[in-house]
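Please describe the entry underneath.
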Amino acid sequence: MNFRQSTSLSVTVYGLSTEGYRIASSIAIKGLKVSLIDESSRVAIALKPDIARNYPNVNSLIDDESLLGLEPVDLAISSASHIFFAPKIRKVGQDVKGDVMSKFRDAIKSLRKGSSFVYTLPTGMGGNDENIALIEHLTGMSVGTEIDYYYMPIFGNGISSHDLLIGSVQSKQDAQLERILLDSDTNTRVSFVDILSAEFAHSIRTLGRYAGLASILEVCKLVNDERVSNELMSNPFRDVYIDEVADGLYDLRAIAASLGGAGPLMYLVNGTIKGTEGYVKHLIDEIRDILKKRDLKASRTKVVIKWRLDLNEMRGDKLDLLLSLESKLKDYIGDVELHNGPSVDLYPNDKTIIIIPCTKEDYAKIEAEGVVNSECIIMKANPVCEIVD
């Protein structure tokens, strides 16, 4: 589908994130005018179709950002018919809301009458009411009549090929937004529903996924029999790593923040969060157990955490878990090294090396490089903390 004749359509994506770039580049390739805002330096990049084709991901774009055409942020927002909000959020806990709202205020202050704002971060249940109220307060315009607001929480790293469920005020349809999002190469369908329905649907999807993951993690923590552990390793969940477990923690916390009082749902959400976060402690306990069983000294041991993170994802949960794992390991084993690159470069060392691959791909890379057959101990960051040496 080509939009070169659709002069009334122009898109601005607020957020130089992996997800934001995927939205922007997919739309730019269709021929639509697109601006991509780097929220940290407050500049907007004019994303041309050839740029989108030549830069496969946001990392490659950032490397050459100084060579690209730039424009003022306020102009990019005020001239756009549709604005997508997809910033990088790096705060956690009590600070996350302030981080989000600061960027949100920056993104909405230059909205013009007749534009459409698409919010792609999860809000929990009822969270969009506050967003809408803030838009009306700062712009002086009414949402639903003078400005349109849409809720499209992105699950994972971008718009999937599955059906898109978009929340809007009174289930208002937006044919232009649908045209922007539709991809002729897939069977994607866009459905507009009430915002609260979209919030509930995303919460159900998040909890449905995490309830299963949390159950696997909690049950596997109880395994202390090697025979049982070996039998469990034949199950598909052996390929579930901490990277996948951390994929939607932001969403879970948003749901928890939107709930009031105590009740079964609050217990379910908080229990799932605690179980997921508690996996870090379990992993460290398993490393302690290795040292004890093999009569290894902590001072003569080095731990290498192999986790190839995408540092430009909107959510910062994986980075937070990684730093938590590193910090807690250093409290016990002083020599801890992070590897975020494509390979593990191990220099000559007189210490026993324990490598922790945190994704299926990380382990496959370690295996391909022959590290598994070396003198290193490999402990997979999966539910059973599988040991390979």
About this structure: The chain has 15 helices and 14 strands. The radius of gyration is 23 Å.
